[in-house]
Amino acid sequence: MIELDAGAPFDQHRATVKSEWIDWNGHMNVGYYVVAFDQATDTLCKQFGCGFEYTRDKIGMTFVLEAHVTYDREVKEGDPLRITTQILAHDAKRIHYIHAMYHADEGYLAATNELMLMNIDYASRRSAPWPDFAMERIEKMAAAHAALPVPKQAGRLIGLPKKK
Amino acid sequence: MLASLPYELPELVTRAPLDTHRSTVLPEWVDWNGHMNVAFYVTAFDQASGAFMRNMGLGRRYVDGKLGMTFVLETHVTYDREMKGGAPMRFTTQLLERDAKKVHLFHEMFHAEQSYLASTNETIVMNIDYATRRSAPWPLPVGERLETLWAKHRLLPKPAKAGRVMGLSKK
After folding, report:
1. 3.90.380.10, 3.10.129.10, 3.90.550.10, 3.30.930.10: which CATH number matches B22-153?
2. What integer pLDDT is reported at residue A161 of this predicted model?
3. Which residue segment(s) compose the domain that A106 sits in?
4. What does each C-alpha distance from B10 to B58, B88, B142 come to in angstroms?
5. Burial level of A36, CB count in 10 A (0-12/13-18/19+)?
6. Where are the strands (E) in chain A, listed by range?
7. How far apart are CA A6 and CA A47, in angstroms?
8. Which end of chain A is less enclosed by CB atoms within 10 A, N or C?
9. Backbone angles phi, psi at A119, to 5 degrees
């Protein structure tokens, strides 16, 4: 397994906005923000041995149960992205975490994505506890991230502001 | 605010919930887990939001005519069941709230043949002025259509999966 990165937040994932991610409004489409975030989830899962090989070798999979995205600012074709990840909580089968996407050159926050991810047994396609090798690393990362403040975009309820 | 739109608006569908949108899981939406990838649920729901907006009179001509655009501000998805490549999808859409510039929508995605609930999406969409790329009030005829729809949709019960806050259950 790769060397564990216990930096807080986890700050390895980089990407570039592809031309096919652009819609008729001339910016990255809402669905492709989630493509970019899902690739950042892959980078995270590799840290604890649950990346592509985990599924290719028919050991297990990871499924997203729930996701919340805030679209904070537009990004355009060719823009460089930096995505950081903070683990908020975890249990025997799940992790709750939040990604923050920044324009890598200009530094502004473009979007956030809060997620609930569950470990899945390959054969049964049902939830299963994290393998020991993964849990050990999740706990180390979560311990490193515990000192971080909870981002204001985490735990949001969707709604329009109430008036009258 | 735009007082009118320079094209003919489609006949308004006021069914509650709206249930006109249909789609199919494209092969390129399937990931290494052998099911529709999380991101393409959002793409599929975005197309359902597009269908809602067309019903309001804000389709492709609204953008191509350089009148305005609609931007998603925030979205919340529950992934309830897997969908495989080629699966037919049926969507329902409920208007949960509206104001001068925004709508708060709730979509449900069903497998169109097996009828199970595959996913839900709660989303906030805002009207945008084309030139400034900033928020702007709905064009007048759109605001009127929203009120007509709201009169029906406000009578629907609030969906159980709307208004969720994510977290691990405390034990």
Report:
1. 3.10.129.10
2. 81
3. 10-145
4. 10, 25, 11
5. buried
6. 10-16, 60-71, 80-90, 94-103, 109-121
7. 10
8. C
9. -80, 140
Per DSSP, what are the bridge partners of residue A61?
Answer: A120
Partner residue facing A55 (CB), from B33, B38, B72: B33
**pLDDT tens digits along B87-102:** 999 999 999 999 999 9
Residues B67-105: b if buried by 16+ CB within 10 A, e if exposed: bbbbbbbbbbbbbbebbeeebebbbbbbbbbbbebbbbb
Q: Can you read off the two tokens belonging to residue A55?
A: 């599924």
C-alpha distance from A139 to closest chain B C-alpha (Å)? 16
Q: Does B73 touch chain A (CB under 8 A)?
A: yes
Residue B52 has pLDDT above 70, yes or no: yes
Count other Cβ atoms within 10 Å, centred on residue B120: 23
The answer to whether the pTM exceeds 0.90 is yes
Q: CA torsion A75→A86→A57→B37, rounded to 10°?
A: -40
Q: Which residues of B touch A160 (CB under 8 A)?
A: 97-99, 102, 104, 124
Q: Which residues of A touch B33 (CB under 8 A)?
A: 55, 61, 63
Tokens in use for A134? 């993964």
User: Smallest CA–CA separation between A5 and chain B, in Å?
Assistant: 24
Asked whether the beta carbons of residue B163 and residue A31 sit closer than 8 angstroms, the reply is no
